[in-house]
Amino acid sequence: MTRQPGRLGKLSLIVLLILAGGGTAAWYAVARGKSASGGEPAPGEGSKPVRPVAVEVVSPRPGGIDRVCVQPGTVEPFEAADLYAKVSGYLVELAVERDGKKERVDIGTPVRAGEPVARISVPESERQVKQDEADVAKAETKVEQVAAAVATAEADLGAAAAAIALARAELKSKTSYRTFREKQRDRIRDLASRQAIDAKKAEEEEDQAQAAISAELAATESVNAARQKEVAAAARVKQAKADLKFAEAEVTVAKAKLEKSRVMLDYTVIRSPYTGVVTRRSFHVGDFVRSADAGGERVPVLSVERTDVMRVVVQVPDRDVPFVRPGNPAVVQIDALPGEAFKTAGPVRVEVSRSAASEDPHTRMMRTEVDVPNPDGKLRRGMYGRVAITLRPGSPSAVRIPSAALVGKAEGGKGSVRVVRDDIAQVVPVQYGADTGAEAEVLSGLTPADRVVVRAGGPVENGTAVSITTRR
Q1: One domain for residues 361 and 451
Q2: C-alpha angle 113/116/117, rounded to 5°?
Q3: What is the mean pLDDT of residues 195-211?
Q4: pLDDT at residue number 31
Q5: What is the pLDDT of residue 216?
Q6: Taking a C-beta distance cutoff of 8 angstroms, is the pair 161, 283 a contact?
Q7: 53-58 and 466-471 as β-strands: parallel, antiparallel, unpaired?
Q8: For residue 6, is it within any domain?
Q9: Sequence-ordered strand ranges (E) for 211-323
């Protein structure tokens, strides 16, 4: 029992020490809290100066960032055609004429638009043309003959009209004579009735009057006959003119047949549809060539590509499709032509020429074409490279900063940037646009005069004292 008080004393001492330690810790925490909140400094802190944080800054560069789509591009000919034979026959010529001389046509041969490049022999077409030419000449001769018949019929019609006039004049004369004889007869009758003259004389006058009447009737019939002749002549004229129209129609038909046979003969000559180069030759001189519509496998005689302008085909991804417009500037670089860029220079325009206005449902990309002038023939079908299309120019009132300078980046184009003003760091909100990963376009919140923190030697918050170590 004598040991218990000693043990109780030890326990009491331990409890007192624990309570004393807890109170000291609580006092220290309160003191630190006051120091951090701007209250009274903790003991010993007023004697230690705060060291500024070293930072690296840059000045924003004026001008926004262009929205550029860079995608692989493939060179295709602006136009290409397979030249087939329209008629079957033997290939007798593969050549073009240069300065009065024949030059053999083969792959790589330059050709001009409308220039004959091949000829097929079809003797039956040549004979048909000659026969149709003879038929045209025959029909034209018949037209001349019928035209002469028309002239003859019209002359007969004129003669019939003249005969009518003559018959009418004769009728007038006979009528006058008949009137005279009747008056003479009446006078003699009167004298005979008074027995002033012999009755025989009256009978003679009666005979002459009747003869005059008969002559008038004959003249009347002559007029009617002349009129009938005129009607017949007019009918002959009408018939002759109808024959002339028929003969002229025959000439038209003959000429149409001749034109058709000439077209068929012209099919034996194959011409280049445009200026370019021959890229394929399927036959040699002497080969039998079947027409394209003869059935079976269709094989072109030649293939020609236009090369003065080439299409560069680009597949634009879905995110850039809404910004593609004809006229967007483009820069084309071809892997096979290192160091050379095809872009707008003076009157030469390199830009988006057309787009499909529809995405491929499998790739979610849209076919876009850039026409590139190719006067020296450097660009060849199948070449590939990269095409940079400027979809939207950057805002001229914007500035550019390194992407690493953005802090607190969030959706909707809103973020924050640390700037140094009077050696104090300040966090300012900004509105940013395009971000390439290397540079960001700031639409509002900064000016080219600001100094933007891109790196810091320690934590930098709003109000932190800083020292600038590097300026750009």
Answers
A1: no
A2: 100
A3: 80
A4: 38
A5: 85
A6: no
A7: parallel
A8: no
A9: 269-271, 276-281, 288-289, 302-317
DSSP reduced 3-state for 261: helix
pLDDT at 388: 96
What 3-state DSSP class applies to 254?
A: helix
Residues 6+ apart with CB under 8 A from 63: 394, 396, 398, 399, 400
The CATH code of the domain that includes 438 is: 2.40.420.20
Is residue 63 predicted with pLDDT exceeding 50?
Answer: yes
Residues near 450 by Cβ (< 8 Å), separated by ≥ 6? 59, 60, 419
> Contact, 57 vs 451, CB < 8 A?
yes
d(CA 398, CA 407): 18
Which of 376, 392, 408 is at the close of a domain? Answer: 392
Could you read off the pLDDT of 324-359 as tens digits, one per residue?
Answer: 999 999 999 999 999 999 999 989 999 999 999 999
Which of 346, 377, 392 is a domain's end point?
392
pTM above 0.70, yes or no: no
CATH of the domain at 238: 1.10.287.620
| pLDDT of 399 above 50 | yes
Is residue 24 predicted with pLDDT exceeding 50?
Answer: no
Side chain identity at residue 75, one-letter code: V
Token representation of residue 48: 């230690």
